[in-house]
Amino acid sequence: MPYVKIELTREGVTREQKQELISGITNLITDVLNKDPHLTHIVIQEVDLDDWGYAGEQVSVLREKGITADKK
Amino acid sequence: MPYVKIELTREGVTREQKQELISGITNLITDVLNKDPHLTHIVIQEVDLDDWGYAGEQVSVLREKGITADKK
Amino acid sequence: MPYVKIELTREGVTREQKQELISGITNLITDVLNKDPHLTHIVIQEVDLDDWGYAGEQVSVLREKGITADKK
Amino acid sequence: MPYVKIELTREGVTREQKQELISGITNLITDVLNKDPHLTHIVIQEVDLDDWGYAGEQVSVLREKGITADKK
Amino acid sequence: MPYVKIELTREGVTREQKQELISGITNLITDVLNKDPHLTHIVIQEVDLDDWGYAGEQVSVLREKGITADKK
Amino acid sequence: MPYVKIELTREGVTREQKQELISGITNLITDVLNKDPHLTHIVIQEVDLDDWGYAGEQVSVLREKGITADKK
User: Catalytic positions (chains A, B, C, D, E, F) (predicted)?
Assistant: First the structure.
């Protein structure tokens, strides 16, 4: 009985990317834990940039300063 | 001190249904655990169908296929 | 697709009380929202009294002062 | 590695108030626990008044009755 | 800035399986969303079988009846 | 009606430190949002080092490598 919650900053994640996360994590849990996928629920929650704080600052402020979360 | 979070797919839940969930769960907790209802908080979070994954698929896709969550 | 999380102070809740909460909330959701109960998951999390704060104080401190959460 | 989630009723919290919460909590955690702030993430979630239940009633109903959450 | 919470029934998940989940989900998020993995935190929470309800019954009761969550 | 959840790695946080977090955050919310502290609940959840993943690795592994979360 796995339940997974993914919280992400709201920065243009597409429907297709969400589907990739959902199928990828469900498959991973099925493979690693041998769980029936019909018992795996995944919820994605996008969070506005004013509502996510990192290192004491709103992400909206970090983005205005040109600081991204992109992989280097 | 109970706190309850209810996550639901966003599929037309009405204000009245939310009130039924809130009063029903609060009453249940008061009866079963003898808790002062003034210490019980309940939060309902509706989740878009693209953001809920079940068995590896977005619920929006399941609904397009005619698969519902209705009681049989 | 409902998922419900119940957070409670750890104060001697029995297995039977947990079962009453689980069946009561599942039945309520089935009745109010017409949801298939096989899609309803409920998680109970008991929280130590040092780890729950109310009105700025640890519940363990409130209990030492004789302040309970019992229904009046 | 702290992660903090703040759930609030949606009642006109400003961007500046959110920033005060984010910087205040991050500083508190840094001071009390000596944690690197680059490992502290804070997420604020505003909840509609129909979706928050207190003492068995929707907060929207409590507000209509003139009951507020203001500090006395 | 992704944060992921995984809730699982406590049924003998090993340290190695947890590491597989953590690295697999982090890699997936890095690949799909191009996120810096240093901004991805994952929390696993194991839940006792008395504390997880499915279809109105405690998982501990389901297991006593021989009903598992294994992949068919 | 604020509810706050703090998730921390389990690394020797004392009862006094928890009380400092609870009173500090409650006071901050009272000051910034003018909320009655009797409506503010705070839950602290300590997470075992095997159960927290950062940058794709268990924190237990990071600690074995000498990597800490201490403020520089």
Answer: 2
